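Researcher: Can you fold this with zinc ion in place?
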Amino acid sequence: MSAIKELTEYFKEIQKLSYISNLLEWDQQVNMMAYKSVEGRSEQRALIKKLLHKRLTSDKAGNLISEAEKLKDLNDIDAAIIREAKRAYEQEIKLPEGLVVEIEKTSALAQQKWQEARKKSDFKLFEPLLKKTVELQREKATKLETYPDLYSTLIDLFEPGTTYDWIANVFNSIKPKLTDFVKKLNTSSNKPDDSILQKNYDEDKQYKLSREILEKIGFDLGYGRQDKVTHPFTTSLAPLDVRITTRTTEPFPDCITGTIHECGHALYEMGIKKELHDTILCGGTSLGIHESQSRMWENIVGRSKEFWQYWYPTFQKSFPENLKDYPLEEFYRAINVVQPSFIRVNADEVTYGLHIILRFEIEKDLIEDKIQVNELPELWNSKMEDLLGIVPPNDKEGVLQDVHWSMGYIGYFPTYFLGSLYASQIYNDALKKMPNLNNDYKNGEFSNLLNYLRENIHQHGSVYRATDLIKRVTGEQLNPNYFFEYVEKKLYPIYQL
Ligand code: ZN
C-alpha cells in the first residue's frame, strides 16, 4: 500500500473512535443522564480518549507521517491529509496520557455540575470544577506551546492558524463601531415593537414547524436526527449521521431560529464529499467557518423578509391567537429588533458580537492567571454593564449561561463572532453570483444557496484552512466591513433611519 493510502487508513480508525466519543457525549446531553450515572460515563469517555491518544502518538503514526511527507506532487486532498495528521500527531505527542485522561474525566463531571449550578443559579457549586478545568487547560496550553501565549495556543485548537493578536485586531476595530451602532438603533424613535414575541406559543407546534423548515432547507432526515435538549448543539456520529438538537423552552422564535442555526452546521457536515468520509478531513475546517454556515442560515436567510414571506402564512395558521391579524411587516421588524439582552444565544445579530467580545476578554485574562475563577461572576456583570449597559439579575443569566467552560472549551467563543463576519463576506459573494438569491426564499426555494455552499465550502471538509478558504471563495482575506454593510442595509429600513 502506498504511504499516503496507509496514512489515510490509519487515521480513519482514529476518526471512527472520535465518532464513538461523540456518541457518548451526545447521549449524555440529549438523554439527560441520571446524575448518579455520570461517574461511569466519565470513565468510558476517558477510556476512548486514552485509546485515541495511544493511536495518535504511536511510533506507527509518526513513521507513516514521515514516509508520506517524502512524497512529491500531491493533490490538495493528500497534502491536506498529511498536514492535518502531522498537526494532530505533533500536538498530541506533547500531551501526557494522564493529562488527556484527566481533562476528559473532569469535563464529564464539570458538565454535570454546571447543569446543576445553572439550574440553581449558584456559581459556588460550579466554582471548584471550573477552577480545576482552567488549571488543566493552562497546563495543556503550556505543554502544547503552539504559540508563545497560552490563549493563542488554545484558540488554535478551534480556529487553526489563528492567534489572539489577529482576533484582537479584528475585534478591537469593530468594538466601537458596534457599540455606536447599537446606541444609534436604541435611541431611534422607530424601534420595532416585539411584544408579539412574548406571547405564548405552543411548544409542540413550534417543534413541528422547526422540523418542517429543517427539511425544506435541505436537512435530509435519512442522514440524521433532531432531538430536544436544554442547550442546543450539533454533532456527527458518522459522516452520514448528523445529530442536531433543538430547545422549545425559550421565547419565540428561538426554537425556529435555533433549529435553522443547527441545521446550518448539519448541512456543512452532510455536504462533505464522499471521498473524504471518515478521513481526518471529514469535518468543518474551523469552528469559525462552521459558525459562518449556521449564522448565515439563521440570520441572513432565516431572519430575511423573503424567508418569512413564504413561512408566515403557515405560522399564522398554527398560531392564529397571536398572529392571525398581525401584519408580516411588523413581525419581520420584531424578529430583527436589536436590543441588549443577557443571554448570548438569544441575542440579536448585532449585540451578539459584544457578548463574544466580553467572553474573549475574560478568557484571555483567566488563562493567563490575571483574574481568578471566584472573581468571574462580578467581572462578568461589570463587563456586561460596560459593553451592553445591562447587569444580569443572577448568575444563571450571567456567568453560568454557557456550557463551554465546563467542557474545557476555552478559546472557542471568539470563533462564533468570526462566524458572523465570515458569513456576511461569503453571502456577499453568493449575491454577486446570484443577485436574485433572496427572491428564491419567497417561494420556499433554498437549493441555489445550498448548492453554492456545497460547491464552494461544504464539499471540501478540512482540505483548505479557513484563511485560505475565504480567499479562494471571496478573493480576499476576512474583511469585517461586509458585516457592517449587511446589518446597516438591513436594519436602517427596519428602524426607519
Ligand atoms: Zn453554532
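Model: Folded with zinc ion in place. The radius of gyration is 22 Å.
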